[in-house]
Specification:
Elements: H1 3-18, H2 25-36, H3 44-56, H4 60-72, H5 78-94, H6 98-114, H7 122-135, H8 139-150, H9 158-169
Helix pairs in contact: 1-2, 2-3, 3-4, 3-5, 4-5, 5-6, 5-7, 6-7, 7-8, 8-9
């Protein structure tokens, strides 16, 4: 598939996601699967999109192997790689595999932080980690992480909110 054809394919996939809320879960999966069939069977972007459709449809068991296959290819662009890692971490939480979810989300967060301030999806990684911590029974740590994440976005009390959140969690900023 040429670059232009791939861009056109991505445009059609994006159009489906724009109307995803109007589709039944089955329609969403079927529509994305039909588009994915236009790509090679091991295409990481198609695998990622198929995983996303199943994830959105609440079919986490079906999403997990597709996320793993897309990530294992090592051919996803950085944005999709981060999204796939975050979404797999969330999927693992839904499947009750909390330790695995936490480890994947922490690794993803470290990669985000290595990119420096303003790294894409940094705050999202922290939010998903907070959900995993809640599921693990670590609600105070989760609330503190959420407050630390919120602090830079406040118009006032940024430093005190961040400091109090760190003290509440008893750890340094992630």
């Amino acid at each position: 598939m040429s670059d232009a054809a791939f861009v056109e394919w991505e445009t059609r996939v994006a159009a489906v996601w724009k109307i995803a809320d109007t589709l039944t879960p089955q329609e969403l999966v079927r529509t994305i699967d039909q588009l994915a069939c236009e790509r090679p069977v091991d295409d990481p972007v198609a695998l990622f999109e198929r995983a996303c459709a199943r994830d959105t449809a609440g079919l986490e068991e079906g999403a997990e192997p597709l996320y793993r296959a897309a990530l294992a290819s090592a051919a996803l662009d950085p944005s999709r790689r981060t999204r796939a890692s975050l979404q797999l971490g969330s999927t693992l939480r839904h499947l009750g595999r909390l330790e695995e979810s936490e480890q994947l989300l922490l690794a993803t967060l470290r990669r985000c932080e290595a990119q420096g301030a303003g790294a894409p999806l940094h705050d999202e990684a922290r939010a998903l980690l907070a959900f995993t911590w809640i599921a693990q029974g670590r609600a105070v740590e989760a609330a503190a992480l959420a407050l630390e994440t919120l602090a830079p976005h406040l118009t006032r009390y940024n430093r005190s909110t961040a400091a109090n959140a760190r003290a509440l969690r008893g750890a340094s900023v992630l």
